[in-house]
Model the fold of this input.
Amino acid sequence: MTQNQNIADMADTIRFVLEIDKLKGILRKVKPIGDLRYENTAEHSWQIAVFAMSLAEILELSIDVNRAVAMLLLHDLGEIDAGDKFVFAQDGWEERRAAELRAVERIFGIAPARTAKFMLSLWMDFDAGETAEARFARAVDRSMPVLLNLSNGGGSWLENGVTFERVTARVGPEIEAGCPELWGYLKEQLEAARHKGFFAAS
Amino acid sequence: MTQNQNIADMADTIRFVLEIDKLKGILRKVKPIGDLRYENTAEHSWQIAVFAMSLAEILELSIDVNRAVAMLLLHDLGEIDAGDKFVFAQDGWEERRAAELRAVERIFGIAPARTAKFMLSLWMDFDAGETAEARFARAVDRSMPVLLNLSNGGGSWLENGVTFERVTARVGPEIEAGCPELWGYLKEQLEAARHKGFFAAS
Done:
């Protein structure tokens, strides 16, 4: 590789890392524990990456954990163009998926070709949700807002009129498929929270 | 391992991931690009992890990149108890290091023993800065606020009266030692910024 190519690749890598700075400004529907503000997608991505690393230490996972962590760090970058979408929204998911794909193609495309190809493959793996790594990563991603809402007395569930049944139907199967031990824990917590009034009335 | 131990480990893992939520409330001295607020340490940790992944795609690194990424995700957790310390502070660094070690021992100690041991070893590796992974990770960590300040017309350098000479003397050697290609790029950017008035007068 020529020296000029090396310099161009470094400049494009920096342009990419500055472009993704925008993820710090994308707000989600849940709040950090005890905070008044909504969390942004950058800090969320950090927390689920550490969560995945932590789970890998206690569970007998036969997956490439580093690949799952990398997916979690990148999977929400499309929100820079497409915004956050509330997990309990009823429709528009196909259009949403297309918009996020367009977004990540643009954003990864700022990085050098090799980086863009690598990151897009991670994103598509997560999006398809078929490999064991993607299923585990999706389970971790789905669980985090549940844990925050449980710590915030209901949080976005109460704010948005979401019932217990809707939560368990929407997030349960995906968490159980990717990390059954985690779902075993969460199911009990959700049952307990139901009796504390953390959900909208059914 | 018994079923009861598995349940206890899952509960402790969840307690840990909820404890580290506090990192979202630790404010640093730099701001996201074009933003009025200061960035927090959780979103910073995310950005440098992705930055490290990106650099690994274009550079011929003979290191375990996944280990460097894991270090970057964890290395600032001590700030939950010890707060952020401005990189250009003149003294108090030894006390600071001890306070951060006490903090991460407390915080990792919430997680199951195996997780705590693994994470503390990553933290100590980063802190010592002797392995190639730690040197690379430290270079990435040091570079990110430089890139944000360059994108913000001087940012925390002007706000805190930091000169060009102090920036290059404080961050230059560490970035060059861990990622010489990155320092080659930044040095030129810093020189250019000097002529644009991004630093306090010498």
